[in-house]
């Protein structure tokens, strides 16, 4: 059985970049946000990262031919993996019919990916926000997959800036309208994701969960990749060498993800750590400080900005 290295993160945390880098390993295939594969398949405006519709893409074609059952299967996947279904997953309150159908679909998806590449490790960067918070837990407990959870955390102020100033990826691509109360929703989503992921990850068993800060990966990718390789059971020398030589990494055939996937290839740009939040409005910084400051601090983001803004919100 192939291993699934699942990148669990909130949106705009760099999961697409990490997926693409890992896809450059000869034993690994990165497939992006595969939780949305059927949703995208049914949407004529959504294509594989290669730019070709899934039904015609050399990698994905042949995976799904029964168009009549596509909506029903996509609905089942979303029901089981979404945030509101978490407690039922934990309690095992899933019908036998749903359990069997979900397992059959996930086994088919993994078998197709492996048949195309022969890889021993598949990277799934579906993340773990509202629509897929329970995905990695369901893949393990319902579908019986060999899942390892890589929890990717990014500075919450950086996430806020990306979501509120740059804009939501789906909205930018015209797939959905920009939602209201974005500051509250982003701060709340960042907290919910980064509270639930370590709890669920550790329930998979010993040595199945690893925490990685995105900033540490960007600042020193060699150290981060060595840790990931040790966790996932693969050597990382070739990846580190390619980064050191400033090589490009091909995007491949990933599903969804950051719009950077549309470039076809990328280089990893190493950067020093920096403080975020200066581009946010005061009320946006206060909202994040009040809702997420405590967790932000626990993950090692010790900006004095949090304490200062939290204090200012009381004035």
CATH class: Alpha Beta
How many strand units?
Answer: 7
State the low-pLDDT regions, or none: none
Mean pLDDT: 91
Structural class: alpha/beta
Name the helix and strand elements from N-terminus to C-terminus, one letter apiece: EHEHHHHEHEHHHEHHHEEHH
Percent range for helical residues?
40-55%
User: What's the helix count?
Assistant: 14
Shape from CA axes? globular
Count of discrete structural domains = 1
Keywords for this entry:
Rossmann fold; 7 strands; two-stranded antiparallel sheet; globular; 315 residues; alpha/beta
Describe the SSE topology.
Blueprint: E1 3-8, H1 15-23, E2 28-30, H2 37-41, H3 70-81, H4 86-91, H5 96-117, E3 121-124, H6 135-141, E4 146-153, H7 156-166, H8 169-172, H9 182-203, E5 209-213, H10 214-219, H11 221-232, H12 237-244, E6 249-250, E7 265-266, H13 282-298, H14 304-312
Parallel strand pairs: 1-3, 1-4, 2-3, 4-5
Antiparallel strand pairs: 6-7
């Amino acid at each position: 059985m192939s291993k699934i290295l699942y990148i669990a993160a909130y949106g705009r945390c760099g999961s697409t970049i990490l997926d693409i880098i890992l896809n450059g390993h000869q034993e690994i295939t990165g497939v992006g946000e595969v939780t949305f594969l059927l949703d995208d398949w049914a949407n004529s405006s959504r294509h594989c990262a290669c730019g070709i519709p899934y039904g015609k893409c050399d990698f994905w074609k042949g995976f799904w031919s029964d168009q009549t059952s596509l909506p029903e299967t996509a609905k089942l996947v979303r029901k089981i993996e979404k945030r509101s279904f978490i407690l039922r997953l934990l309690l095992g309150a899933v019908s036998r019919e749903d359990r069997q159908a979900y397992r059959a679909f996930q086994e088919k998806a993994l078998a197709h990916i492996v048949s195309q590449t022969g890889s021993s490790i598949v990277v799934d960067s579906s993340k773990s926000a509202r629509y897929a918070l329970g995905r990695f837990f369901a893949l393990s407990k319902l579908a019986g997959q060999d899942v390892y959870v890589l929890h990717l955390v990014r500075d919450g102020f950086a996430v806020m800036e990306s979501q509120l100033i740059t804009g939501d990826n789906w909205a930018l691509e015209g797939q959905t309208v920009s939602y209201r109360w974005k500051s509250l929703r982003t701060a709340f989503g960042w907290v919910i994701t980064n509270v639930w992921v370590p709890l669920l990850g550790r329930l998979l068993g010993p040595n199945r969960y690893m925490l990685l800060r995105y900033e540490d990966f960007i600042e020193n990718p060699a150290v981060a990749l060595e840790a990931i390789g040790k966790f996932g059971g693969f050597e990382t020398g070739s990846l580190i060498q390619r980064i050191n030589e400033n090589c490009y990494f091909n995007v491949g055939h990933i599903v969804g993800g950051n719009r950077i996937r549309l470039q076809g290839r990328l280089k990893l740009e190493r950067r020093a750590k920096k403080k975020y939040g200066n581009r946010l409005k005061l009320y946006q910084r206060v909202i994040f400080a009040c809702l997420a400051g405590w967790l932000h601090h626990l993950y090692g983001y010790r900006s004095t900005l949090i304490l200062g803004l939290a204090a200012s919100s009381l004035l």
